[in-house]
Design a protein that fits this description.
heterodimer, A: mainly beta, globular, B: mainly beta, 7-stranded mixed β-sheet, 4-stranded antiparallel β-sheet
Chain lengths: ~110, ~110
């Protein structure tokens, strides 16, 4: 079965600083990987996805993630944090054998300090 | 194109009651999945429907059920509500079933008293 691990539940950065949110996955088949963001009282919004094409994936709002098979990682980064980036971020994996079921990590809350 | 819509957005019920939540997918999307989000358990997959058939089911008791209509709209039902069913219920739609990107609605927040 597939699984996702997001280390730490809370990350705090200063505005303008690098954002790095970590995600490690486990999957017995080549995975499809996703990052979603959730703002308070809202649903999930897709930031980016990896589907076995380019290993460096660019998403919306300046975010990008790099798929590293050897490290089973799919970390999310943004060069310069903005106050509006404060939200909860979820990494998810979709396993081919489980159709389109998504398995999510526990989520990381990102705070941005002025 | 309109996004995924869910109704109602907020709901308060008491233990033992039943509840029905509704989800309208993005136009043209035929797969609808449901997830439960709680602070303790995070996001958990409930079930998925495609062409009016349940194709995948998570590890939830039989009190949780769903269905999909010919227009792809979906409903989920929870019978005999328990306090632990208080959660945000999210619906997601996608074009087809296999590994397509899922687009989420705003959710229905259910509070069981």
């Amino acid at each position: 079965a597939q699984s996702v691990t997001q280390l730490g539940s809370h990350v705090s950065v200063s505005e303008g600083a690098l954002v790095l949110l970590r995600c490690n996955y486990s999957s017995s088949v080549p995975p499809y990987l996703f990052w979603y963001v959730q703002y308070p009282n809202q649903g999930l919004q897709l930031l980016l996805k990896y589907t076995s094409a380019a290993t460096l994936v660019k998403g919306i709002n300046g975010f990008e993630a790099e798929f590293k098979k050897s490290e089973t990682s799919f970390h999310l980064t943004k060069p310069s944090a903005h106050m509006s980036d404060a939200a909860e971020y979820f990494c998810a994996v979709s396993d081919l054998r489980a159709n389109s079921k998504l398995t999510f990590g526990k989520g990381i809350t990102l705070s941005v300090r002025p | 194109k309109a996004g995924v819509t869910q109704t109602p957005r907020y709901l308060i019920k008491t233990r033992g009651q039943q509840v029905t939540l509704s989800c309208s997918p993005i136009s043209g999307h035929r797969s609808v999945s449901w997830y439960q989000q709680t602070p303790g358990q995070g996001l958990q997959f409930l079930f998925e429907y495609f062409s009016e058939t349940q194709r995948n089911k998570g590890n939830f008791p039989g009190r949780f059920s769903g269905r999909q209509f010919s227009n792809s709209r979906s409903e989920m039902n929870v019978s005999t509500l328990e306090l632990g069913d208080s959660a945000l219920y999210l619906c997601a739609s996608s074009l087809f079933m296999l590994r397509e990107t899922q687009y989420f609605g705003p959710g229905t927040r259910l509070l069981v008293l």
